[in-house]
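[SOLVED] Need 3D model of a four-part complex

Original post:
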Amino acid sequence: MGDTDPPSGTAPDPGSEHATDEALKALAEPRRRAILRLVAHEELPAGRIAEEFEVSRTAVSQHLGVLKSAGLLHERRDGTRRLYRARPEGLVGLQSFLDQMWAGSLDTARRLVEAERGISDDDQSASAG
Amino acid sequence: MGDTDPPSGTAPDPGSEHATDEALKALAEPRRRAILRLVAHEELPAGRIAEEFEVSRTAVSQHLGVLKSAGLLHERRDGTRRLYRARPEGLVGLQSFLDQMWAGSLDTARRLVEAERGISDDDQSASAG
DNA sequence: CGCTAACGGAAGCATCTGCTAACGTTCGCG
DNA sequence: CGCGAACGTTAGCAGATGCTTCCGTTAGCG
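Solution:
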């Protein structure tokens, strides 16, 4: 039972590689992004969310499950209803991932552009600063 | 068929919904993320990139095509070789997307949490912030 | 208890996606 | 021109994914 998944299949540790993977895969679906946009500004029940789309409620429910499993959604029970709202914490992993990637690639791009200017007179020393 | 796709199959307008979709789908693949990390710090030829993985060069080539089509990669020809490097511009769309989503969901979360505090307490004040 | 409402879950299907294998193309060299 | 190197492209296959239909569960109500 001592698996590396204490909270039992729901939202891995934020900042982890697995968390980023889950969140990215969840956001890769347009419908899922639309759902997330809907509950980003207000808490809504599953049925209410499903009405906004042409697909069946079951499909939306599955999307909600994926989003919740990725840590991007917060679920709250209210009688037979289940209220959902976006979870800002689930996005911090992606934020840091993009930030890191952006910094690295931007640095490389700058270096390459500067190298182009002095192609015939380029010093290839690894002066990583 | 004059569709809304002037630049024909290579890196749509940054900031567009389609661009975000392409970039997100491209980043949803772990291998693709690894490739992007590799070329984030230095420019590398396709064959050199392929050597870093267990899969065939063809698979990596296809991944490179997807990344390039998503605007996340920059290709440069050098004889028979093709040098690739990460494109920071391709990430700005995701950055704004995440930022927008973050702001909205954070605002909602804050509102919900504050509402929880005054559940038993009838707080009917119009302090809508 | 019986009924309805609001959901999630499982099975089945159509489609997408990533991988491999074989082939074609472009470039450099002698 | 002939040859090899470096890549991209196409066809085909196995696994993942999203959607639908049917069914089970839980909560409120008379």
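Edit: Residues 17-103 of chain B form a domain with the Arc Repressor Mutant, subunit A fold (CATH 1.10.10.10).
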